[in-house]
Design a protein that fits this description.
The structure holds 2 protein chains of 2 kinds. Chain A is mainly α. Chain A contains 14 helices and 4 strands. The N terminus of chain A is likely disordered. In chain B, the strands form 2 sheets. Chain B has a 6-stranded mixed sheet with strand order 6-7-8-3-9-10, with helices on both faces. The longest helix of chain B is centred in the N-terminal third of the chain and has 20 residues. Classes of the chains: A mainly alpha, B alpha/beta.
């Protein structure tokens, strides 16, 4: 972190800018890469050129950027507030399901049964849409629900958990149970969300075909912009006094209470913000990968989000983003070259980071830089 | 009700509010009066008591940690509490600050505020500050940020998000920094401070809260002699403006600051008086030297 400290007349550190100059520079570069360089390399540069960005890579990077948003959300709740959630996969999946419902309705009569209803409903011999699908044909309502559904679930769960002062490993276990319970619920056909097959075979978004290069690029750019936006928002949050209260809750919660702060609304606010971010990531993820099923709610998925944050470096915001890219980059490479070794590598990586790199990769880089630069 | 009476009532209410904001004097600058309107959050000390504990009982799994404790503290008083280990000193502070609920008894802040009805943050907001036995500061934050967090201001989520120090608050902050001798360490991570400095920082955080009553659990533990002497000096300047309750084992420190000492033993008051009086008390000698 490179927040500049200015000195006011009284000798007190003044409130620094949101980002240092180099930070804004990095944001600008990222913006150019996402909005100009990547589209140009993918759409304009001919496929024969070595500079061509393949469609496969666009899809992969888009997917990883969605994961990075999740890792960022995890950093807010775990890195800054000290609450380890092992249920963030649920919020990701909920956002994804809301978007998936809209995409299912967009298929229209082009499904295998040529019906107005989604295929799986025809297969189950349902005659009309369940009430949960009432708003699924409106894109505006879908966007709203992408925020509201994960937010509301997080609010209700968080309110009761934090009010009962559930902490530490107990909280983690309960969140894990929550996502597992939701997975079992979504596996059932009666729940009305496609059972274990989930949603797939999407055709269109806003009436435009999904399977085109341009659409893929648009979704890629949107995801990149969302990631940057989330990063700036998170940076603003943690550099405000609100963010420092969160860190204080992490370090000494009883002291926070005796300072006159009620930790409940603080925890609840950051918990809901974190969940909504994951929901948005899920909604961006589904049209890019073309499928959503209850597997996204599995325990392992939520744990992986925590691994990304830990590998990259907690309480740094940039760390978890880097972590998501490193782990998922390694994953997509290793699962192709040595598929049977991937899980061992993930486990080993997690152990190494926990034992030797408590500050993650970003912490290591910072340490090396300080060592190299001496005073500077 | 006649208009004049209503008018008078409104004026009294205004004065009370004004006194509350300015924190003028312990009694809000008023004499005791019958049927004065109750003002929410106002500490009514017109009866000469800022803290009042009556017949408090607490037991943990059958062990009576506090057993019929009666104690009261006057506004502006500096009271020292001593007692052997397990006498219930820390438990008493837990009860006053809302961390532990007593099984029975009453705890009043002023003559109108029943502390047993409030939660920890609310009690802190009412004006009771507490320093823990083990210095508890926010280790990852700087000295400056620690003090800024403790500052008496709106403590809700939204006010915190858009919070910035105003000039008056900055002055207050530098004043406290001066008092606790940490001016040169403003930007240091508080986890890197020495034990004594952490104690000072925590006391500074209490001062930022502008509490009416300060509960200090072993404030000079781990301090050097010089730091202890400075702390004694600080407490003597706080006396009068704030009420203080100090739990300590360091007798020379108590001798330096005390006017009235309360000896706790087995969860109840054993003796009360000046340090010399209680030290001459047969029962006190017995509990300290063994039976």
């Amino acid at each position: 972190m490179t927040t500049q400290v200015l000195t006011s007349a009284a000798g007190l550190p003044a409130k620094g800018p949101l980002l240092a100059r180099s930070g804004w520079g990095a944001i600008l570069v990222a913006l150019l890469v996402v909005c100009a360089l990547a589209p140009a390399l993918n759409l304009l540069v001919p496929e024969s050129s070595i500079f061509h960005l393949s469609d496969y890579m666009v899809g992969l990077l888009g997917k990883i950027m969605c994961y990075a948003i999740c890792a960022l959300a995890m950093d807010l709740i775990w890195g800054y507030t000290g609450i380890l959630s092992l249920g963030h996969g649920l919020f990701f999946a909920l956002g994804g399901y809301v978007m998936g419902m809209y995409l299912m309705r967009q298929i229209g009569r082009e499904g295998s049964y040529q019906s107005d209803l989604p295929d799986f409903m025809v297969f189950l011999d349902w005659k009309e849409l369940p009430w949960t699908w009432a708003l699924s044909d409106s894109f505006a309502a879908t966007l709203l629900l992408v925020l509201l559904v994960p937010g509301l679930v997080a609010f209700v769960f968080g309110y009761f958990a934090f009010r009962s002062r559930i902490k530490g490993v107990y909280f983690s276990i309960i969140t894990q149970a929550l996502t597992f319970a939701a997975m079992l619920l979504f596996f059932r056909n009666e729940t009305g969300f496609g059972g274990n097959n989930g949603f797939t075979d999407f055709k269109r978004l806003l009436g435009l075909p999904l399977a085109t290069q341009e659409m893929r690029m648009t979704l890629f750019v949107l995801t990149g912009l969302t990631l940057l936006g989330c990063y700036l928002f998170a940076r603003w949050l943690v550099s405000s006094k609100f963010g420092r209260v969160l860190q204080a809750i992490r370090d000494a919660e009883s002291r926070v209470m005796f300072c006159g702060y009620d930790p409940l609304p603080y925890k609840l606010t950051i918990w809901v913000i974190s969940a909504v971010m994951c929901g948005v990531a899920g909604a961006l993820y589904v049209p890019q990968v073309g499928i959503i099923n209850p597997g996204e709610m599995s325990a392992a998925n939520s744990i992986e989000i925590a691994v990304w944050a830990a590998v990259g470096g907690r309480a740094s915001l940039i760390g978890p983003i880097v972590g998501a890219f490193i782990v998922n980059g390694a994953k997509s490479w290793l699962t192709v070259t040595f598929p049977e070794f991937w899980l061992y590598c993930l486990g080993a990586l997690f152990i190494v980071v926990t034992l030797y790199l408590p500050q993650g990769v970003v912490g290591l880089v910072q340490k090396l830089r300080i060592k190299k630069g001496g005073q500077a | 009700m006649t208009p004049e009476l209503m008018e008078q009532g409104a004026q009294r209410y205004e004065r009370a509010q004004e006194a509350l904001v300015q924190g003028k004097t312990a009694s809000g600058g008023r004499a005791a009066a019958f049927s004065r309107p109750l003002v929410r959050g106002e500490v009514d000390t017109t009866h000469g008591r800022i803290l009042y504990l009556e017949d408090v009982q607490v037991s943990f799994d059958g062990f009576k940690a506090i057993n019929g404790l009666n104690l009261d503290i006057a506004p502006g008083e500096l009271r020292c509490i001593i007692g052997p280990n397990g006498a219930g000193k820390t438990t008493m502070m837990d009860i006053i600050t809302g961390k532990t609920r007593p099984d029975s008894g009453s705890v009043f802040f002023g003559s109108t505020i029943d502390l047993l009805r409030y939660k920890e943050p609310e009690i802190a907001a009412l004006g009771i500050g507490r320093k823990f036995q083990k210095p508890t500061v926010f280790e990852e934050l700087t000295v400056f940020e620690n003090l800024e967090l403790a500052l008496a201001t709106h403590k809700g989520v939204w006010p915190s998000m858009k919070f910035g120090l105003n000039g008056e608050q900055k002055d207050r902050l530098s004043e406290v920094l001066q008092t606790i001798h940490l001016k040169d360490s403003v930007r240091r991570r508080s986890g890197d401070l020495s034990h004594g400095q952490k104690q000072w920082l925590e006391i500074g955080m209490l001062l930022m809260q502008e509490p009416k009553l300060l509960l200090l659990d072993e404030p000079v533990a781990g301090m050097t002699d010089e730091e202890t002497a400075r702390t004694a000096e600080l407490f003597l300047t706080l006396k009068g403006k704030h009420s203080l309750m100090v739990v300590e084992h360091d007798m020379s420190f108590i001798r330096a600051i005390s006017e009235k000492v309360t000896v706790l033993c087995d969860g109840a008051v054993l003796a009360e008086g000046t340090l010399d009086q209680v030290q001459a008390d047969e029962r006190v000698i017995e509990v300290y030297l063994g039976r």
